[in-house]
Design a protein that fits this description.
Number of helices: 3
CATH architecture of the largest domain: 3 Solenoid
Order of helices and strands: HEEEEHH
CATH superfamily of the largest domain: E3 ubiquitin-protein ligase SopA
Largest sheet: 4 strands, antiparallel
CATH class of the largest domain: Mainly Beta
CATH topology of the largest domain: Pectate Lyase C-like
Helix content: 10-25%
Length: 189
C-alpha cells in the first residue's frame, strides 16, 4: 500500500496524540503493509505502532522509538536503525539483512525467524549465525537463543543441543556445527 507523505504525517500526528493521551484521543498508527521505502523516520515515536508487513527498506529510523511495535514480516533490509529503541518489539520473521542496528536496544525483542545476514549488530548484545538448516540468533540481554522454532536459554542449549538436534532429525554433522557455535557463544558472553 503506497502512502503519501501528507497521509503519513497525519498518521504520525494522530499516533503522537494517542500516545500523549494514553489512547483517549488520536489513533494508534496502523501502517500494516505500507510502502515506506527510504522514508525519513529519524527520531519518530512509533512505539506500539502496527507495522506488520510494512516495506521499510533503506528507511532512516535512527533514534526512532519502536518500543512494542509490531513488525512481523516487515522488510527492513538495509534500514538504518542506529540508536533506535526496539524494546519488546515483535520482529518475528522480519528481514533485517544489511540493516544498521549499531547501538540499538533489542531487549525483549522477538527475534524468531529474523534474517540478520550482513546486519551491523555492534553493541547490541545480539549474535547471528547462518546454520546449515536454520538461522541461529542469540540475544544475550534476554539469554534467548533462537534456532529454527526452538527458543531456549544458552545453558539449556549447551546441555540439550544433541537431543534437540536428533529429535528434529538433524544429521550428526549439522548437530556438530550448531554445537560448536553454541559453545563459542558461551565463550563470548
Amino acid at each position: 500500500m503506497s502512502i503519501k507523505q501528507t497521509e503519513l504525517n497525519e498518521v504520525l500526528k494522530q499516533h503522537k496524540l494517542w500516545l500523549d493521551t494514553k489512547g483517549e484521543e488520536g489513533k494508534r498508527a496502523d501502517l500494516r503493509g505500507a510502502d515506506l521505502r527510504c522514508a525519513n523516520l529519524e527520531g519518530t515515536d512509533l512505539s506500539y505502532a502496527f507495522l506488520e508487513g510494512a516495506n521499510l527498506r533503506f528507511a532512516d529510523l535512527r533514534d526512532a522509538n519502536l518500543t512494542g511495535a509490531v513488525l512481523i514480516d516487515a522488510d527492513l533490509e538495509g534500514a538504518d536503525l542506529e540508536g533506535a529503541d526496539l524494546m519488546y518489539a515483535n520482529l518475528r520473521g522480519a528481514d533485517l539483512s544489511g540493516a544498521n542496528l549499531e547501538h540499538t536496544d533489542l531487549e525483549g525483542v522477538n527475534l524468531e525467524y529474523v534474517n540478520l545476514i550482513d546486519a551491523d549488530l555492534e553493541s547490541t548484545g545480539v549474535y547471528f549465525f547462518r546454520g546449515p538448516k536454520h538461522y541461529g540468533t542469540y540475544n544475550s540481554k534476554d539469554d534467548k537463543l533462537y534456532i529454527g522454532c526452538q527458543v531456549h536459554s544458552l545453558e539449556y542449549w549447551l546441555e540439550n543441543y544433541v537431543a534437540i538436534g536428533k529429535k528434529h532429525r538433524y544429521t550428526n554433522k549439522e548437530i556438530e556445527v550448531y554445537g560448536n557455535w553454541i559453545k563459542s557463544l558461551k565463550e563470548l558472553t
